[in-house]
Design goal:
Length: about 120
């Protein structure tokens, strides 16, 4: 789905985070944009910043969950020993709900970027 299709469904903060994050991803040639909520939940957008196509949404959370709108994908453990559960978001409405709880963004880099590249493109 195209980025523009989501923008109209978002609040001002979510829209700004997506636009700024996508622009930064385009400038640096990155495919993973992490949008973070106040609760420390990371919504990972797997995208092509040049065509503004969003391939999929993933959720990064500190504990396991059983939610029918999510599909478990992998466990990620960083160099500091912090574990994150990575889920694929199956429901577009849930993705929009998560996007509307965003307060900041950053690009996935380093070990997280390598991990995501490996599990999503292998």
């Amino acid at each position: 789905m195209k980025l523009k299709e989501y923008l109209s469904k978002l609040d001002e903060v979510g829209r700004r985070a997506m636009l700024l994050g996508t622009a930064e991803a385009k400038e640096l040639g990155k495919n993973f944009l992490v949008l973070e909520s106040k609760m420390g939940i990371g919504l990972i957008l797997y995208l092509n910043p040049f065509t503004e196509e969003i391939y999929d949404f993933y959720l990064s959370i500190p504990s396991s969950t059983s939610n029918a709108r999510l599909k478990f994908l992998a466990l990620f453990k960083d160099n500091e020993g912090k574990v994150k559960y990575i889920y694929q978001v199956l429901d577009e409405e849930y993705a929009v709900e998560l996007l509307n709880s965003v307060e900041s963004y950053h690009l996935a880099n380093g070990e997280l970027e390598d991990f995501l590249e490996f599990i999503l493109t292998s």
